[in-house]
Each structure stands twice: as C-alpha cells, then as structure tokens.
Design a protein that fits this description.
heterodimer, A: mainly alpha, 2 domains, 25 helices, B: alpha/beta, Rossmann fold, six-stranded mixed beta sheet, four-stranded antiparallel beta sheet, globular
Amino acid sequence: MKSFFALMKLEISGIFSDMFARGDRTAKKKTFGRGAAMIGLIGMLAVMMVIFEVRILDALIRISSADIMLKFLVAAGMFMTVFYGILEVLSRLYFSRDIVILSYLPVRDFTLYSARLVGHMIAEIGISAVFIIPGTIVYMSRTGFDAMLLLRALAVTVLSPAVPVAFCALVSGLISKVPGFWNHKELITTAFSLIIVLGAVFISYFSGQLGGSSVDEETLAKSITSLSSVFDRVVLAIPPVAWAARALTDGGKDMLLMILASIASMALVAVLFSYHYIADTSRGSETSAPMKKVDMSRAVIHGQSPLKALTKREIQEMVRTPAYLVNGLLGPVIMPTMMTVMMIIPFMKIDGGIAEFVRTLGGAKAAMLPVCLFITGIMSLMMGMNSVSSTAVSREGRRHSLMVSLPVDARSLIASKLIAALFFSLVGIIPPPIICAVIIPGFGLYALLMFLWSALLAFIGAVLGLIIDIGKPRLDWINETKAIKSNMNQIFGLLIFFVVLALDAGIVVLLFILGLDHKLIILIETALLAAASAVSFLFLKRKAPSYHRIEA
Amino acid sequence: MIEFANVTKIYAKSGAKAVDNVSFTVNTGELFGFIGPNGAGKTTTIRMLTGSLLPTEGRILLDGVDVAEKPIEAKRKLGFVPDGADLFDRLSGLEYLNFMGDIYGVPAKERKERMDKYLAMFELTDAVGGRISGYSKGMRQKLATIGALLHDPDVWVLDEPMMGLDPKASFLLKEEMKNQCRLGKTVFFSTHVLEVAEKLCTRVAVINKGHLAAVGTVDELKSAEHAESLEQIFLELTGSGEETEE
C-alpha cells in the first residue's frame, strides 16, 4: 500500500508539476502567478457556464424540468473527461519515458498501473468540478439552498470521473493490444486521434442541430424539451452516466450505484490491463531499428534556406506527433469551421432562410457588419485555443541545447515557429469566410474582412503565445502530451488572447453604441488590429534574442 | 583554436556557480580531452563553447571569434554532438541529415558524398530512412556524429561521445577523431572514460567543482602529480570525488 501511495503521489506531482516553480529565487511568486492564472481561467469558464446555465435554468423552471440541467452537467462533465482524457491516459499509461526507471523498482504491475490510474482520475476532478459546482450553485440560487444537494454535488464531482477514466484506460489498453502496436504506435495513435476529432465534430454538429435557434425564450424551451427527450433516451441509457446524474439529483440508491460503479470500473481495468503491464510498457522505450533503406542518389535535398528548413521541421513535428495533432491543431484548424457551421445552420432552418433572418435584422446594410463581426469573434475565440505557438519553445524539450548550438540567429528560429503556427491558423480560418460567402447572400466583401480580421487576430495570438513561451519554456517534459497539454504557457496564452479579444469586442460594441457609420467602424477595427499586430510583433522581435539566454 | 579566458558561469535561476574563472587554450589540430567527475562543470563549459549558454564572465574565442559576441560566425565553425543525443525524434535519419545540411548550407554534392561516407562508416545506411524515434541510443549517437561532421567543421565538439556506442562504433569514432586532427581540425570532447583520454588525447584538462584543476599532456600531468596513470591523477585532483550539482 505504501508503494501505491508513493507512486500515486509521483503521478499527481508529475501532472501538476508545472503549477509549482522550484529551484528558483522567485519560485513562490511564480507559483502564486501560475495559480492565479489557473484560477482566472477556471473562473472565466465558470462564469461562462453560469451565464449559460441561468438562461437555460429559467426556461427549464417554466416547464418544471429544472433537474434536467444538473443531470446534463454531470453527463457533460463525464463526456468531456473522456474527450480530453483519452489521449492523455493513453500516453501516460503507455508512452511515458519514466517507465525506464519505474521498471527497475520492486513494485507489482497492478500497483503501478492502479496508482497511475487513480492519480489520473484525481487530476480529472477539475473537469467535473467546472461543470457540476457552478451549476449546482446556480440551481440553488433559483430553488433555494439545499445542504444535501451540495454534499451530493461534491461526492459526484469527486467520483464521476472514475468511470470515464476507466473507459479511457480500457480503450487505451485495447489499443495497446492491437498487433504491431509497439512498432507502429505513432501511426495507430494518429489514426485513433483523428477518429476522436471527427467524433467530436460529429457530436458538435449534432448538438448544433438539436439546439436550434435560440433567438427567443419560447424557441429555447422547445429546443430544450426536444433535447431533454433525446438526452433521456440516448445519454441516460448509459447506466454509469444515469447513476451519476441521478446521484446528484436524487441521491439514495443511485449514489450507492455510482460509488460501486466507480470502484468496480477502476478495479476491473486495473485487473484486466495490469497483467504484464511493466514488461509491455517497457517495450515502448525499446527501439526497433527500422531498416528502411533509401536510394541515396535521390535522397539529398538540393538545399533550402535555414528558415525554410526550420519551418518545415516545425510543421513535420506537429503533424507527425499524435499528442500535438490533437491538442495543438484541433482548436485552430477544425473549431473555427465547426463553430461557423453550427452558428449558421439554425438560421438556415428559419422560414425564408438566411435572407429572412437578415431582413429581420434590418436588411443587408445594417445586418452584414454585426454578423461578420460576430462570426469573426466566435471563430477567433475557437482559434485562440492555438497552443502551437504558446508551446513552441517548450516542445523542443531536451533538444533545446541542440537547437541553440545551430548557427541560426534567434529571430530566424522564432520566425520559423511563428510561421508554423500561422500556417495552421490559416488552414483553419480560410474555410469559414468561404462558407459564409456561399451561404449568406451578398456577404462576399464581408467574407474578405472576416478573413483579414481573423488572420490579424491569429497573428496577434501566435505572437503573444510565443512571447510567453520564450520567457518561461517548459523543457523538462516526460511525454509529448505534457509538453503541449499540461503546459501552463498554453493557459497563459489562452488567457491573454481572450483578454485581447474581449478588449477588441468591447471597443467594437462601443463604436456601435456611438452610432458610427459602418465603413468607419470597419476602418477603425482594421486599424486597431493592424496596430496591435505591429506592436505585438515589435515586442516579439525584442524578446526573440532571449531565446538564446534560456538556461535549460 | 579555442580560447577560454576567465570564464565563469553562474546560473541565474539557482545562483549556483557551475564554472569558476576557467582559462585554457586548445590549439588547432589538437585532440583535447575534458575530464572531470559528475557535476564538475564539463557540460556547462561545453554548452558555453557551443553557444547554448552565455558565460556570466569571461570570453570564449573560436579561431579568434567571440562566441558570445558573434555566435553565428562562431557556430558555423563547429560541429556539436550533444550528450545523450536528443535529436528530432519525428524526423527520419535522412531528414535530420538534410536538415543539418540546410542549416549549415552544405551544397548537395558535398552533402551526398559525406553522407555516403559516414553512413557507410557507421553502418547506418540501412536505417537512415526510418524515424529517429525508433533508433537505439548508439544509433542516435552515430547519427548526431554524422550530422555534426556534415559541414566539415573546423572545430568538433563532443559531449560524452562514447556513451551508448558499441565497441566497433566506439573504435570508428576514435579513429575519425584522430583523422580530423590529422586534417588540421580541432577536436574537443568530454569523457568519463579515462583510458580513452589517456590513449587518445594530445592534451587534457581536468575540471572539478567548476575549477580548472590541471591542463597539459598526460605525461606532463603524470610528472607534475608524481602519478603513474591518468586515473591516479584524476583521483588526486578531484579528491574524494564528491559530486556537486551542475
């Protein structure tokens, strides 16, 4: 048992190690800053959830189905744990470099496996907390304080990640048993990652269809009624989800079932997949010398500039690494298109289609600019989840000393990282304006503006991310998921970009309130973003030389 | 020629003094061994030489070029094989070599000639198409060595180069180090293997707890310390061999 707790502590400290600065004179201040950033981000998410929940709850109270929101939040938390955790569990369980050291320790396979699993489950409590706690508070603000409900909410928050984490471990375990997995783990993991991403796109699209237009309260209530019936039939048909959801709303028998299911699911996967776990996982650190002869007469590239070579390497690394592909590229490449489509579809279903919607907004002249700005804002929000630049230096890891020994100036090195990040952003922001131009009549010119503003925002976001990562890169990661996902710089990058976006949105709203002509608003917005891009770029240019002063 | 002039390195984060007022010169055409216990400051010194770290005080000159003042010019002169050979795992061996060729601006013809020569020498031709992530430690070390030699550097810097190499590869590497010196190049390497340093080096430097303990030929050090082997000199100069954090 002692070794179980020691290993679990190691696991948890590995997951949260980036939160705590060590070996540094300013460690306390930095730890405080990181904690504040984390709380800020969680707080921001919680506020967004509260705003959403208050509106939904009011509609639900009117149809006497307030409990459905709590059930929905538990289910959403569990599904998000699976979505965000599945690759993390796979890489943590099977790809971590520390297995080389752990395999020498006199611990049983079951002890190590279960310690890793439980450690990961504890780390995932944050996700369920973001969903359940604010929702419960909002619920009680409308229905009255209920101490038992609060206790049940805490219990469900702590225990509901167990089944999703066990499910992730089950899937990861099964993948690891695929013949040839250890020889082709990157290919298999990449294919699996793409399936997850496509699944997420499908689910989001499906949710968008169900949600319909939320223009007024009546439509919203109707949508929720239709959604809740599907939710009852599809989501609550999964017993562990139903038990956890009802454990929060009803307690009693369902609470007991949830506790039993949590313990049983974790124990079951631990028993199933811990057999030969250390020996199997150690194979991941083995090397299978890939005998792949090449025709040397055709193998040499006829020279390209260092900047091109560096940029190509950055892009190759991003697309060839499953953890980077999913955690870094999902946001900037897929989400802007996904959100644009989800936003447009409900309006296409209105009688008379988009044209009618535009007419209700006061005609094309009045409606196009607000629609354009709104879609740009939403797609930029999605694009802001671009961790390609905010982890660009961190991803170098132990190869940083090799990178800085190359005869390339810091600005070229940083430029290659910026170009790579912008490349992926551009892939993401080109389709939405085209989709809008095709679907919305008379949107052509605004589509160009959408592209221009999104590109400028992408540039600002990438530059800010790089500035943060040059300042304090995390180079001591043990697997690639840690380098990109569990990296505080990603959170800092997100926060700062969201602040920039909020400021820009505030200014635009103010311009509308002041009743300025739309052409003038377009000019001011373009000038603002161009100026912000130039200023941030100048900052990056000044910051770039400090890349060579990083003491890894 | 490499000149270390009063080089000191204090890490900003921890305030630890890893290298303290080190001065010595490595002449052109020398095969120079840099030895010391774990945490003595070897890797820090090498990282300052390769431009990965900036000295807190002092200067490092490579053929008269200050590494801190003109890093690009200085780096062009050297080829570096890092400790542990952490390379770009997602690239194939061939992509890595082409990347290094592009960075150092090696023309295609010379690039191919050198690739052919060294890949055959280190028996890596059959594996060069595969991803580096599938390479063994020794194969990575060999690839890093080829990458460092691809632009025919004037100064070749190797950090613990024998680690992970099989006896044959180790022999070939030592032969190539001697060959580079015969061609008038300078080779500077760190090692723990005192036998290698004793047999191979024209001169050695011993570093301990950041201080330079001795510099000279093995024979000079033997007579100065009244010792019979480099191992004896090493133990005398480094005391009990207490380790410090690097």
